[in-house]
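User: Fold this, then the next.

Assistant: Folding the first:
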Amino acid sequence: MSVYKDAVAANLNDGFVVAINIVAKDGEADAVADILESLVEPTMAEEGVKFFMPYRSPINPNAFFIYELYVDEAGWDAHNNSDHFQNAVGALVQKVATRERVPFLPFVS
């Protein structure tokens, strides 16, 4: 049984998480925001995706954070191979100064 009594919190603690930090190149932040926004709907429709939420820093408009929650690592792999991701990332990498993707597993069940 989960230590999280709230069903929503328990669900967010069950799966494969990927934390992504992106810093856009100067002059490219709005284009990066548009690309990330375009990923929300098709990504949330993927079978192996539980949650996909991009954020933008209020103190550094070039800085973005994306919280991704997948059913399992296979869900992340499927997302990485999806057409919408492949198309978006091709445009994205040209507009960013840095992009770091770090996977995580919950350590509290």
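Now the next one, as you asked:
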Amino acid sequence: MSTEQSPRAAHGPSALMSLLYLFAFLGVVFATAVAGGAVTATSVGDWYVTLEKPLLTPEPWVFPVVWNFLYFLMAISAWLVWRIAGSFDAAGFPLALFGTQLSLNLAWSIIFFGLKNPPLAILGIVVLDIAIALTIFAFLKFSRLAALLLAPYLLWTLFATYLTIGIAVLNA
């Protein structure tokens, strides 16, 4: 398959259908973000502030700004793969990986902030890192741009891995 346009995509979804699916991808991704934010809010103002944090921990306001930007890029990336593939059938495996990593992203919030379990969150975020990398490689077969849009997400999540490990070690 070509890296930017499949034969099917040349006769793919109409502009209106494509726009509707763009909003659907944005909706699913941001619904996950809202769910993660709701879990995070249960302990970010009390439990989290009591934790020892590693060097380079950003100010609290940085996290929602960065995450919202990354969620936007994630949705655009998945939409591009769907659009270039021309259908969910043609993009099924990469989009299944995308859904898996999105679910793992939410699971990390539940483990870290909901369960207040940084040691277990290490396992969760390492699995998330791997899932994001696999998603990038799967997206690369459809679109270099879609894969590149996920690169900042992988980098930030690797940074979050450092923070998670640091918090687990410093608060053991």
